Amino acid sequence: MKTTKQHCNINDLVSDIHREHSDICSKDDLDKIVRALFEAIKGRMARGMIVGIWKFGRFDTRIFKAKTLDTPVTRGPVEIPERLVPRWRPSDACKDAINAHDAKRRG
Fold it and tell me: Secondary structure of 19-86 in the HEC alphabet?
């Protein structure tokens, strides 16, 4: 299954939402709201919290423990510090919506 991926950034999301809901607020206000939402999600994840959005998915972090690796070029050890790695798990409703859209696209 080969799919062509198109890129979408935060400005594209804001434009799409504003096109559908321009009666709610201005595009500039909507941009601030969307950016604030993503900042809030990042901030909570940085504190190790799980952020769940109903029918969309769950954002959380995973701890990668510190480790020592050997570099192939120098054969010397390299210390990799412990770190949090972000992760997103889509909900079943989100997966179903994506698969339904894909099936419709395929005809």
Answer: HHCCCCCCHHHHHHHHHHHHHHHHHHHHCCCCEEECCCEEEEEEEECCEEEECCCCCCEEEECCEEEE
Task: List per-residue pLDDT tens for the chain, 107 residues long.
Answer: 556 678 899 999 999 999 999 898 999 999 999 999 999 999 999 998 999 999 999 999 999 999 999 988 888 999 999 998 999 999 999 999 989 876 666 66
**Could you give the domains of the chain?**
10-106 (4.10.520.10)
pTM: 0.73
Residues present in the chain in total: 107
